[in-house]
Amino acid sequence: MEDKKYFFAVDLGATSGRTIIGTLTEGKIELEELTRFDNNLIETGGHFYWDIYALYFEIIKGLKLAAQRELPIRSIGIDTWGVDFVCVGKDGALLRNPLSYRDPHTFGMMEDYFERAIDKAKVYDITGIQFMNFNSLFQLYTMRKNNDSALAGAEKILFVPDALSYMLTGKMVCEYTIASTSQMLDPRTKQLDEQLLASVGLSRDNFGRMVNPATEIGVLTKEVQQLTGLGAIPVIAVAGHDTGSAVAAVPAKDEKFAYLSSGTWSLMGIETRNAIINDLSYERNFTNEGGIDGTTRFLKNICGMWLYERCRKEWTDAPKSHTELIAAAMEQPAFQSIINPDDPMFANPASMVEAIKDYCRQTGQHVPEGYAEICRCIFESLALRYRQVFNYLREMASFPIEVLHIIGGGSLNAYLNQFTANSLGIEVLAGPQEGTAIGNIMLQAKASGDVGDIWDMRRIIAASIELKRFEPTDKDQWDNAYGRFLKIVESKQA
Prior knowledge:
Elements: E1 5-12, E2 16-25, E3 28-38, E4 41-44, E5 47-50, H1 52-68, E6 73-79, E7 85-88, H2 109-116, H3 120-127, H4 136-145, H5 149-152, E8 156-159, H6 160-169, E9 173-175, H7 176-179, E10 185-186, E11 191-192, H8 194-199, E12 209-211, E13 215-219, H9 222-228, E14 234-237, H10 242-248, E15 257-262, E16 265-272, H11 279-283, E17 287-290, E18 296-303, H12 306-314, H13 322-330, H14 352-362, H15 370-396, E19 403-407, H16 414-424, E20 427-430, H17 435-447, H18 454-464, E21 468-470, H19 475-493
Parallel strand pairs: 1-6, 6-14, 9-12, 15-19, 19-20
Antiparallel strand pairs: 1-2, 2-3, 4-5, 7-8, 10-11, 13-14, 15-16, 16-18, 17-18, 20-21
């Protein structure tokens, strides 16, 4: 019988984090959550910071637990949210807790940057990254403009997963997938762009060596070994950006697939050899982020279960159980009310329920009443918006898209998965739910030589989980609804 191989994954989100043990044995992967903890924002002095030391402490705590259980860990990998970074001084010390992308200091600064530094179209042409005011480029621009003392004293800039790996190993790197979220990386050269760096007073020397996912960064320092009771275990650069690790876990059989990472937000995209940067991708605000094995994740952000989650907080009479609530929604007539989930009205309204009703009033539709009608409206509208974005992908992809893989927490929503298959007219495969952690662990296994390329990884993942299959039905009904959706969206934008 083949020996079990143990890998330690750190998966950090913007509200919580966890440490996970992944085991690989006989061509299958299993996960066990070791610890779970909050990732708290610190508000002080008019700014919002992440507590990098608290995150480091939680990683040490998880490693201590693994040591106490005498788990023979082969390696450690860290993935986090994108764009945020830590300033490191000449003496190697962290100069301050990192600012959070939620800090309002960047409001209005993106437009200021385009006016004073580099034109918007030029920035997109270099990076192919969608515009968000909190991208690292605009954070750095704002900090320079405000004479930020940490940036003024910075010898190196480390993105959050790289900063935590540095605290464990003493080695500084710039991992490709996390660097790609910064709006400072050129996906054609796969390097940070000197012109963009210069526009915020930095040069390539201010960043660590560029490494790809599945590269060893270094081993645990003597200090960390003593703190944890572990030996000189390697720390691996996985896909440091959590979405990069999640897409690495898509159990596809070949490249002719699209993915939908489904949760509070939905990320729909394809994996391509080369970045897609043209007038159409610019106009539609698609993004090109770093993937594994030199690929690009060409995708678009879509408002996902955010609408449903916000409404659930308002409903006082709805069943507490998701199953009961959604079952009640499925008893309502189909397509009574359709909304565009990505309309600005739904970004952060005081009442999501009222915002949905207002949208329907403004577009001359049936105004949904009660939780069941509103829930049905949300699910059908999401599936129709997915079709619109999927059609854009089909138009811009260089290969036929034959299947949609749904990963993440939303992959458990059987009704929405079926609606998505019906709307897109394509087979939908749902799973795994724990995509990010699985991708992190498989990239560590790749680094240790326990698995081969991405397709070998994906074969193992497919063999380890049960995929749920959804075939499209009710084609005419969904085609008619999609025609209505496009007219409603157009009339609202007019």
